[in-house]
Amino acid sequence: MKNRRHLEFALATGIRPLAGAWQRLADAALASFGISNSQGWALVHLARLGPDTRQADLARAIGITEASLVRTLHQLEHAGLIARQPGRDDRRANRLVLSERGATLAAGIDERLIALRAELLAGVPDGDLATTMRVLDHVAQRIAERRGRQ
Asked: Mean pLDDT, to the nearest integer, of 116-131?
């Protein structure tokens, strides 16, 4: 068995290229739907967040600024895939609603992403996946703690 330092190094240096390669495969799946990556990810995240999602919440889920999201939302609205409506409690905060066509497209994209995950993780036992998630959650918690101390 490899020593702990080697395993820690392998994990630390292996995460980024793996995440990038996975992201490129997911982006290719989105491109097959004839929409931009930003539009596809916005639709998928909006569907996952549910009805009446605020723009700020969608931007946070995607990991971008609200300003970066505005152009994508305009394109999606123009294509008839979403509608922006004033918030119920705060009329300045837009809430986003998928159109029927947008919901259908988001579901198709999500199905493709589910198939990609299943393909990439085929043969990995459930216990190994659960352990991996515990490790990633632990590291994420430690990173959050460090950020809190800075």
From this structure: 97
Q: Decide which of 3.90.1150.10, 3.40.50.10490, 3.30.2350.10, 1.10.10.10 is the CATH code for 32-122.
A: 1.10.10.10
pLDDT one-digit tens code per residue, 130-146:
999 999 999 999 999 99
Looking at the predicted structure, is the pLDDT value of residue 9 above 60?
A: yes
CB 72 within 8 A of CB 42: yes
Helical (H) or strand (E) element with 28? helix 4-31
Q: Domain ranges in the chain? A: 32-122
In DSSP notation, 55-111 reads HHHHHHHHTS-HHHHHHHHHHHHHTTSEEEEE-SS-TTSEEEEE-HHHHHHHHHHHH
Task: Report the DSSP pairing between strands 53-54 and 94-98.
Answer: antiparallel
pLDDT digits (tens, 9 = 90+) for 10-32: 999 999 999 999 999 999 998 88
What one-character DSSP code corresponds to residue 54?
E
Per-residue tokens: 23: 């992201």
